Amino acid sequence: MTEKAQTEKILKFGEREIILIGTAHISQESCLEVKKAVEERNPDCVAIELDEGRYQSLNNQDGWSNLDIIKVLKSGQGFLLLANLVLSSFQRRMGNNVGVKPGDEMRTADSSAKEQGIPVVMVDRPIQVTLRRAWAVNSFWGKCKLISALLASAFDKEEVSGEQIESLKNSSEMDSMMKELSDYMPVVKRVLIDERDRYLASKIWECKGKKTLAVLGAGHLPGVESFLKKLAAGECTSDTSDIAEVPPKKISSKIAGWSVTALFVALIAAGFVYGGMTKGTQLLGAWVIWNSLLAGLGTLLALGHPLAVLTAVVGAPFTSLCPLVGVGLFTGLVQATVCRPKVSDMETLQDDISLKGFYKNRILRVLLVFFFSSLGSSIGTFAAGANFVIVLGDFVKKLFVK
Questions:
Q1: C-alpha distance from residue 20 to each of 6, 222, 243 (Å)
Q2: Local structure of residue 192 (DSSP, 8 states)
């Protein structure tokens, strides 16, 4: 193995050569480096850190015009779409400062390879799988931190210079960022970085030809290099089936979800049986009031349509008892139906990721209604649970006093 530059690693395994080009995704210099590498190295195959879905999106800038927000919500993709939009918008804002669009270096790799008749292979894991795995393996607290990080990036207006962007390719800068991510969200770092390092290395290893040039984010260079060496030494295989899909919900988690529902219902029933109409009504009222109040308040904060607010108030006490569906699905569908998004909303979707834009763009407003009503209902469930403990505690004390 030889190292020409900090952003280029040349790995030799017998007659086979793999060249890793590390990039910053919004760097003009990275575009030039990639073009030069493809032309000068003349590889048998060019591997790109994209999946087929992102590759199509990268080459179809009008793809958002075909978005069906109602279909997205019905398929349970609301949070996924919101995360995708926030992440892509964050990169777009940084790229605007240096006149580069996110993924330009990947486009350059693709076009340069095609100009020379070199096969191109997409070697990244589908973004939907990555985000869903990051969500599924997280604890409740981890999910809260992930949501807060996404929201922070959505409204972050800090200017980033070209020099700062280029420094992202510097190993010390990248090591510092990886450590920070690992300390703050270790599970997310494992899914977003470590698993993808292994996935990328495996797909690069499977590329045909004696010389492969791989274009990937600089942060993946150390991990991919490490896995490639293990593959060459026979220490692991290129089989990635265990990390290529969203892990199914464990039976224990399904049981736990319904157990919580059964517990709340049982407690309310016990209140009526052992505490009479007064205690039973107190518990039932706490459940309805907290869920309705906070889900409705969340919808109001999103400036949802009055019918969406009404849907939140009426629906939250019921959907909170069902682990399979949340009130956000219904409030979002009502908002999307009553205030149907226009073509102009789809055309400006990515550019409208801002505090003002979320309220102006009808698609983003639907997602905001979906998110805040879901959040309000979740908080309401915890608040009602706390209220249950207080009411039942007082009741038990009175029994013992007697």
A1: 10, 10, 22
A2: I
